Amino acid sequence: MRNFVQPGHNVTLNAPYALPGGAGALVGALFGVATTDAPSGAAVTLATTGVFDLAKTAGEAWTVGAKVYWNDDAKTVTTTATDNTLIGVALAAAPSAATVGRVRLNGAVA
Q: What's the short name of a Pfam family annotated to this entry (predicted)?
C-alpha cells in the first residue's frame, strides 16, 4: 500500500507551548503526551494512544472508566466536560486530593 504513512500512535507536530516530556498537549483538536521536552513551536513527538499518569485537577474524585477531558487553560485532566476536550477515560480511581491520575487516551480527535 503506497499511500500508508504511519500507524499514528505517535505523531510529530510543533509544540503549542513549552512542553516537558510526559506533559499533555492539545494541538487543535488532537491531544497527545510529549515524549521529550520541547520549547514552544519546536517539533515534538506526541503519543496519541496509551496509558499515562497525567496532571489531574485537584478536588475531583475519579472512578474507573469515567470520561476525562483536557483543560488546556490549566494544563490538567478533569472530569468536567464543559469547555474541555475529551481525551479518554480514567483507568484507576483517584481521590479528590490527588494531583495525578491514570488515563487511557482514546486516540480520537475531538
A: Phage_cement_2
